[in-house]
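I'm stuck. Please check this protein.
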Amino acid sequence: MVAVARPDAEIRVMRREDLPAVSAMERASYDFPWSQGIFADCLKAGHPCWVMRVEGELAGYGVLSVGAGEAHVLNLCVGSDWRGRGLGRYLLRRLLDIARWNGAERIFLEVRPSNPVAQALYESVGFAQVGRRPRYYPAKDGREDAIVMGLDLLPRAS
């Protein structure tokens, strides 16, 4: 698949050799990170998995699942050194395009209520809350709910 680029960022398909760096970024970004094995399983299952590189370095990644006309953002991360530059929005928009290209008409995701930055990012591209999953995430004090957000995927205007 062809890499999507903006002047300072390239997005391409995740490869097995990316897994150590992706896993390290995941561990540095989350209290309850995915293991490297989970990312490997996503690749093995054929989920659309993408990495974003800036200046030759891993800056972020995203993982989708797609099927039956729907998509789900399973994981989206921009490394701490790259945040605040619009790269998360750029990567998310590419994931939305990838979902469309794979036939999805609607896309969903879960986000922690304790992560207002991510919520604002998702809302900025049109996601809206459609539900809540009680005690969905592990948390330091037990469990945390998930806000479920959804977006209808209309064909992207050129």
